[in-house]
Amino acid sequence: MVIRNPRGEMPFLDHLEELRWRILWSLLAVAVASAIGFGLVYYYNVLDLLIAPVRAAKDDPTFRLVYLSPADPFFITLKLGIWVGVIMAFPVVAYQIWSFLSPALEKSERRAIIPALYLGLVLFVAGVAMAYYAALPVTLQFFESFQGEAMVDVLEIRETLGFITKLLLAFGIVFELPVVIMVLTAVGLVTPEFLRQKRRHAMVANTVLASLITPGDVITLTVMMMVPLFLLYELSIILSRGIYRRRAEREKSILQPDTEPPPGAVEAD
Asked: Distance between CA 143 and CA 149 in Å, rounded?
């Protein structure tokens, strides 16, 4: 049992004890969810869902990836099961992290971070969905267009799945830009004026990042990544402006409290 003093603070050893239990509960949640994820991957053909864009790029519904070791099918299924388990256990892990850190945050910081967590989850799913349905097929077709007459492709399952998951995660992480800006604004490291001044620099950085994540022709590069990144940056400015304005109003109310007497009160001479 964790004991707090009247100010809500805990001794250092109690913090370590609480952290230990938070980590244990998180690991237990990941382990249970990974066992469930292994069953889902094995019985519901999650692997087919991941290699569907490869089959579409080759226009061959029966195309299958090759493996080089007898143990590869098992370990690939296990790895995918763990990834599915991590995703399923994420709400529990996030709750444990939040429960450990929230007592050290100010009320205003908690108000800013809680919406950021929900927004971050939505944006991550949106980024992964865009990569799966739009960017990944175009990227695979782009690579298929090179040296098809001189080489025959034999796609190995580990390398291919690694390429697919990296692209999906890259889009999901990049779409977290507004969340990062919200947190930086909440802690006072970024202002809306700074973001507006650095808009041109951000466009150049977005172009370089888009060219690295999404190889392809200019139209694909522009539509698939540059436009979403630009829109996400503008959304970040809007969110930053709202957080900055609320914080400024709150500081102003603290520095200049309302000294007007309530209605019906008798003023002193």
From this structure: 13
